Amino acid sequence: MGRPPPCSRDENGLKKGPWTPEEDRILVDYIQRHGHGSWRALPKLAGLNRCGKSCRLRWTNYLRPDIKRGRFSEEEEHTIINLHASLGNKWSAIATHLPGRTDNEIKNFWNTHLRKKLFQMGIDPVTHRPRTDLNILPNLPQLLAAANFTNLMMTNIPLDAAHLAKLQSLHNIIQVLGTTPTMEALNFLAGPTFRENHQFSNLSLGFAPQELTQLQSNLLNLEAPQQHQPEVTEYHNQPMEDSNNHQFSSLSPANIPPLLTQSQLPALVPASPERRPQTENKNINPINISNPSSTSTTFEGWGDLMDDEESDSYWRDIIRPGIISDMALLLKELWD
DNA sequence: AAAGTACACAACCGCCAGGTG
DNA sequence: ACACCTGGCGGTTGTGTACTT
């Protein structure tokens, strides 16, 4: 039997919950005069009806004089994202790079802001790589309609980084379809079995035949070798919260940021000396696109996944617009 | 104006590693 | 070798506030 944790060991009236200004004053007074010494002994010596652990947390996370309060700056934000990419949830390690910020504060900021932000940008907040999962699919019709590849390639449409990340994710999916014997997969996805099993509606993506032709040629252009293959961080490290702050104000074919192939995808965050090794690139793509025989398994797997998912409604929400089937139909036409 | 909901953040919990007797 | 203490860490919960219906 393990020993009960210090704070619950003696429940004889020790106060929990929010600290009062008076308690704060007592704690700060005591530590300024005597130092904290043994945290366990401190509350009794200082005259606080708290456990030592509670006092330590209050001091380190809130009362310490060197704590910087207020909003995180853009620079701090980028630092956290970069460090998280290399260190993971090592909040205390991350905090050492941000003077005046506590691990708790950084952790909260990550959980409430940054994780959500990355997610919405089509970046997996755990792996820091473009999401190739299906969660981006609900936005694809809008994305396709709004971006309308034809226009995207032929005109100057300002795109922000979030759109670019989504486009890259879409491109990743397209590539999975395009680099394998696609017809089997597409037939499966577009076929009546898949549709009926998942109650898909027919939803036109609204491409005219000539647009499809143009789209096909534009997609093929995307496959062409790029002169410049920047680190993806060149986009992600830019300020993103301001949708008017377009990183690529003029997207001519010459300056369209390259959409990387699955096998070429670099780490989202450039490797610093202490960062994760290149070998982790094997994790980039959960789908083994180098193995043609994996195709049908992959797409049948999607169906399985949807059936197996704990939250049925979760997948239904994602699939409701019939996006996969419509994408498959679209891509069938493109690759026919 | 009241009720419900979402969000941000402070605080707590449980576990672990290192130190000590 | 063992039991215990202590501080630290990451995950989770609770609470206050802002916003929406």
Proportion of β residues? under 5%
Oligomeric state of the chains in view: single chain
Profile the largest sheet: none
Task: Please tell me the total number of domains.
Answer: 3
Number of strands: 0
Structural class: mainly alpha
Distance between the termini: 67 Å
User: How do the helices and strands follow one another from N- to C-terminus?
Assistant: HHHHHHHHHHHHHHHHH
Low-confidence stretches: 1-6, 134-139, 141-169, 171-186, 188-209, 215-326
Tally of DSSP helical segments: 17
The whole-angstrom Rg is 26 Å
Question: So what's the overall shape?
Answer: elongated
- Helical proportion? 40-55%
Mean pLDDT, rounded to whole units? 55
Structure description:
With 336 residues, the protein is an all-alpha fold. The chain has three domains: 14-63, Orthogonal Bundle (Arc Repressor Mutant, subunit A); 74-120, Homeodomain-like (Arc Repressor Mutant, subunit A, Orthogonal Bundle); 134-335, no CATH class. Helices cover 52% and strands 0% of the residues. The chain is built from 17 helices and no strands. It has helices at residues 6-9, 21-34, 42-46, 52-63, 74-87, 91-95, 103-120, 140-147, 149-154, 161-178, 182-190, 192-197, 209-223, 233-236, 294-308, 312-319, 323-335. Helix 11 (182-190) runs parallel beside helix 15, helix 11 runs antiparallel to helix 17 and helix 13 crosses helix 17. The longest helix is centred in the N-terminal third of the chain and has 18 residues, at 103-120. It is elongated, with a radius of gyration of 26 Å. Residues 1-6, 134-139, 141-169, 171-186, 188-209 and 215-326 have low confidence and may be disordered. The structure holds a DNA duplex (21 and 21 nucleotides). Residues 283-297 have a biased composition (Low complexity). This is Transcription factor MYB39-like. Pfam families: Myb_DNA-binding. Residues 11-63, 64-118 form the HTH myb-type domain. Keywords: DNA-binding, Nucleus, Repeat.
